[in-house]
Amino acid sequence: MRRLLVTRCLPALLIGWMLLPLATAKAEEKTSDGVKQRTEVYKKVGDVELTMHIYEPADHTAQAKSPAIVFFFGGGWTSGSPKQFFPHCELLAKEGMVAMAAEYRVASRHKVKADSCVADAKSAVRWARANAERLGIDPQRIAAGGGSAGGHLAACTAAIDGFEESSEDATISSRPDALVLFNPAVILAPEKQLPPAVLKRMNGLAARMGTEPENLSPYHHLHAKMPPTIIFHGKADETVPYVTVERYAEKMRELGCLCKLVGYDDAGHGFFNQGRGDNSAYQDTTKQMTQFLRDQGFL
């Protein structure tokens, strides 16, 4: 049983960082069941190429100006794979969106902290907007989404200033126009209204951040221009306690922003993934995700 809470609310040779204005590498395009899929490189960091997995309707063209969404996988900023959101991308492509799943640097593979993950997420959204005409997407209808740490990254692109690559064109916004978040980590620093037990769980976060946790805590940076947001969260989540997203949604309401919080009784962390249990949570969350995007004019 779920409860729905609605609240309103440079040069190309620059050493180190580079956002690719146009893709430098494309995998062979594949078409299956009415969906085209390909992979492009959206950013290079030294010798590391970060890829964007792109799903679009089979008849999609550059003239379409379709809505788009960029997903970020979970894994505690340490591990994970874009494959987590391939099912969501395929589903939304069938609905008419250009849906993308972004690779970003993580601790286990690239020896980075969460601040670098945030920088990559901002680069991914900016890349989509910078290439909107070529990709056939509407630059004013680009959503961001993700699960757990990926949900945190999506929220950061909307809430937090800074952590931008100096080599990128700052005149192109890295802020999304809507957010779709699955058990996201949205409060990473102490907040007086949280229970002591929840605050205690935050003690180990600093070592993974690369900066003070509050600097990367979306809750602490919420503002009145936050985009429409939907959050799916298990009430039995022991990794990211449900009370944290309740407080996040309340603050969104206080700011006059739209935020829908959908809570699932007895559901733990990662409950929404395809193949989890009898798949009913995946089916329900994707159904509501689609309706939310439709309500916001994305579909």
TrEMBL record:
Q: Does the keyword Glycoprotein apply?
A: no
Q: Which interval of the chain is the signal sequence?
A: 1-27
Task: Drop me one GO molecular function for this one.
Answer: triacylglycerol lipase activity
Kindly give the InterPro entries that the UniProt entry links to this protein: AB_hydrolase_fold, BD-FAE-like_dom, GDXG_lipolytic_enzyme
* Coiled coil feature spans: none
Keywords, comma-separated and alphabetical: Hydrolase, Signal
- Domain BD-FAE-like: residue ranges: 52-250
Annotated SUPFAM superfamilies: alpha/beta-Hydrolases
Gene3D superfamilies for the chain: alpha/beta hydrolase (3.40.50.1820)
Pfam families tied to this protein: BD-FAE
Domain of life according to the entry: Bacteria
- Keyword Signal present in the record's keywords: the answer is yes
Annotated family: Belongs to the 'GDXG' lipolytic enzyme family.
Report what the protein is called: Alpha/beta hydrolase
Q: What is the lineage of its organism?
A: Bacteria, Pseudomonadati, Planctomycetota, Planctomycetia, Pirellulales
